[in-house]
Specification:
The protein is α/β, with parallel strands linked by helices. The protein folds into 2 domains: 168 residues, 3-Layer(aba) Sandwich (Rossmann fold), CATH 3.40.50.300; 67 residues. It contains 8 helices and 10 strands. The strands form 2 sheets. Strands 6-7-8-3-9-10 form a 6-stranded mixed sheet, sandwiched between helices. The protein starts with a helix and ends with a helix. 37% of the residues are buried. Bound molecules: adenosine-5'-triphosphate and magnesium ion. The site of adenosine-5'-triphosphate (ATP) has 12 residues, from β2 and α2.
């Protein structure tokens, strides 16, 4: 009965990892980046992942994206093992990858051009997305004419525009200053609240993880494994500018911080 139930839950997950490990072999050493990882992510969830530097967070995303294969275990997307890159999985990194020779509009519309969407529709969709993230009026600007925060907004929209069923974000707001960061968190949440796409979002910042996530996953110092998986019950829509004064936020922050600090400390003494 229990096994049936487990099988049932597994089949309902949009994405699952079962007994996943990843090691890298260098010339003179072997690095275990990820070990013994079981994870289920359901459609529409906003998952955030925190953990010390080098603990295997990006590796986890790369495995989900199909950019590398696990050394052990299986990663499944919609019930099927992930083999290679799938276009319905969108990937947003810390660095914006806008093409310097294209205008913002053409950068954002580029994924649509790849799949043959006609020019007029491309431009209309790019315009409406740019408007949603506060970039209306900058369609004709080139990336070097935009601020870091504006470029990252463009970068995010370039992935959202083709409506991937899961969006992987690897510290997308990492290089931005604190205020720009909060403002981007607000934009991301407002878009997510209307699309409810599935998001896996990596961050160093526990405040950001709790402010955005339905679940916060904490990874241990290397070799990385999942040590906590907390539900965030704070109601939505959330006000990211003031969430730190929410009593539920404080409680969860203090609890996870105890464990995160221990992991970071362990990492430093490794
Ligand atoms: N392609 C690779 N080849 C060899 N080793 C790798 C590769 N990718 C990652 N590693 C190693 O795996 C470990 C985990 O790296 P990963 O990039 O996943 O960490 P991270 O948690 O994302 O770190 P950070 O927070 O600093 O971004 C590191 O020791 C790293 O050196
Ligand atoms: Mg990383």
């Amino acid at each position: 009965m229990n096994n049936d139930l487990n099988a049932q839950t597994r089949s309902n997950a949009l994405l699952s990892m079962e007994g996943v490990a990843k090691q890298f072999s260098g010339r003179d050493r072997q690095v275990v980046a990820l070990q013994n990882t079981d994870l289920e992510i359901f459609a529409g969830e906003f998952i955030t992942v925190v953990g010390p530097s080098g603990c295997g967070k990006s590796t986890l995303l790369n495995l989900i994206a199909g950019l590398m294969a696990p050394s052990e275990g299986t990663v499944r997307f919609k019930g099927k093992p992930v083999v290679g890159v799938d276009r319905s999985i969108g990937y947003i990194t810390q660095q914006d990858n806008l093409f310097p020779w294209l205008t913002l509009r053409d950068n954002v519309a580029f994924p649509l051009e790849l799949v043959g969407v006609p020019e007029k529709e491309r431009h209309d969709r790019a315009h409406s997305w740019l408007e949603r993230v506060g970039l209306a009026g900058f369609e004709k600007a080139y990336p070097h004419e935009l601020s870091g925060g504006m470029r990252q907004r463009g970068n995010i929209v370039r992935t959202l525009i083709y409506e991937p069923s899961i969006i992987l974000m690897d510290e997308p707001f990492g290089p931005l200053d604190a205020q720009t960061r909060i403002s981007l968190q607000e934009t991301l949440l407002s878009i997510w609240e209307s699309t409810r796409s599935t998001v896996v979002f990596i961050t160093h910042d526990l405040t950001e993880a709790i402010a955005l996530g339905d679940r916060v996953i904490l990874m241990s110092a290397r070799p990385g494994r999942i040590v906590r998986d907390d539900k965030v019950e704070i109601s939505r829509p959330r006000d990211v500018f003031f969430i730190q004064s929410d009593p539920q936020f404080r409680r969860l922050y203090d609890e996870i911080w105890q464990d995160l600090a221990a992991q970071v400390h362990e990492h430093a003494n490794h």
